[in-house]
């Protein structure tokens, strides 16, 4: 299994820290990939756009996907050192330190005591993850479309168990993120999202489809907008069993909560190995999904991370 930026045989998934000029697309940076191994007072109707046409491959090219008007990610700048002009003198040259000031980002308070919040662009929506997870709200990650898998792209990401597999430095036990599903009805949207994720994350992109996926019936629930209004939503869980491998999970659990937001849904997806310590079990995955919410404008706070110096 593998993700963007790596061969699928190495690890499932890709990771891309990216600058999103608008909700319609992003420009990938030079960040490498990942394994398991997306505003106003609340999310409003997404406005799906066609994905940008660009060749994709597991060997390092990033995906260019269209997102919808309520989702996005904070810009993450990538620094590059320019080679200094070589001097004919043997005297060593001293480089001037580069000071990098991160862009401001919007954060939202968690609703679960002891957990961490992962906020989307402008903080209009958020969800919480356990303390052992690492929120990466400015990261886009997912799996490319292949001849046998549909592919999926998620924003407002978080991960757990980084580097758990010695054979793959990009390995992780599990992760989460918000994805655009061009389906209006919550149950159908949740089922599509969970199918896209389970098939794409746990199978080779060009087959064979060796993962056994057991999907559970949809559970009705609600999603709270930033205004306090509640809209219908649906939760779907699926168990995935894969053939033994050096890094890939032999048994994983995937969960999706899809709210009814109009012509499309902004669904939260969570996935985790069930065989590796530190992952999220069924109860924890459900708990993460149920924290997904719209954030009142009064609860959003803009922060600017401290500058850092690159020498």
Structural overview:
The chain is mostly beta strands. It has helices at 186-201, 282-290, and strands at residues 14-22, 25-28, 98-100, 105-107, 116-119, 125-129, 134-136, 139-143, 152-160, 174-181, 212-215, 219-224, 230-241, 251-259, 265-273, 293-294, 301-303, 308-310. The strands form four sheets. Strands 1, 2, 7, 8, 9, 10, 11, 12, 13, 14 and 15 form an eleven-stranded antiparallel β-sheet that branches. Strands 5-6-16 form a three-stranded antiparallel β-sheet. A two-stranded antiparallel sheet has the order 3-18. The longest helix is centred in the middle third of the chain and has 16 residues, at 186-201. The radius of gyration is 20 Å and the shape is globular.
Task: Give the tags.
single chain; 311 residues; mainly beta; 18 strands; 8% helix
Helix content: under 10%
Q: Describe the biggest sheet?
A: 11 strands, antiparallel
**Number of helical segments?**
2
Mean pLDDT: 76
Shape: globular
Q: How do the SSEs run, as a string of H and E?
A: EEEEEEEEEEHEEEEEHEEE
Low-confidence stretches: 4-12, 14-89
Q: N-to-C terminal Cα separation, in Å?
A: 37 Å
What is the number of strand segments?
A: 18
What is Rg?
20 Å
**Strand percent estimate:** 25-35%
């Amino acid at each position: 299994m593998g993700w963007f930026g790596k061969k699928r045989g190495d690890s499932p998934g890709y990771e891309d820290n990216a600058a999103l000029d608008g909700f319609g697309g992003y420009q990938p940076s030079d960040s490498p990939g990942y394994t398991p191994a997306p505003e106003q007072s609340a999310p409003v109707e997404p406005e799906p756009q066609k994905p940008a046409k660009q060749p994709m491959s597991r060997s390092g090219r990033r995906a260019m996907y269209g997102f919808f008007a309520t989702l996005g990610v904070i810009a993450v700048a990538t620094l590059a050192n320019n080679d200094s002009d070589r001097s004919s003198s043997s005297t060593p040259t001293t480089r001037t330190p580069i000071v990098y000031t991160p862009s401001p980002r919007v954060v939202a308070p968690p609703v679960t005591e002891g957990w961490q919040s992962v906020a989307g662009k402008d903080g209009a929506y958020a969800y919480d993850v356990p303390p052992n997870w690492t929120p990466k709200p400015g990261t886009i990650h997912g799996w490319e479309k292949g001849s046998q898998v549909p592919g999926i792209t998620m924003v407002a990401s978080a991960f757990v168990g980084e580097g758990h597999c010695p054979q793959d430095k990009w390995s992780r036990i599990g992760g989460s993120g918000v994805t655009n599903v061009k389906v209006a009805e919550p149950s159908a949207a949740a089922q599509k999202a969970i199918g896209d994720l389970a098939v794409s994350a746990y199978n080779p992109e060009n087959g064979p489809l060796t993962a056994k996926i057991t999907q559970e019936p949809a559970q009705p629930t609600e999603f709270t907008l930033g205004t306090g209004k509640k809209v219908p939503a649906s939760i779907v869980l699926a168990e995935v069993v894969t053939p033994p491998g050096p890094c890939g999970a032999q048994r994983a659990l995937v969960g999706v909560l899809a709210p009814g937001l109009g012509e499309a849904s902004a669904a939260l997806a969570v996935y985790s190995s069930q065989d590796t310590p530190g992952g999220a079990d069924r109860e924890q995955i459900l708990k993460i999904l149920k924290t997904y919410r719209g954030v009142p404008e009064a609860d959003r706070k803009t922060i600017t991370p401290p500058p850092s110096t690159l020498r």
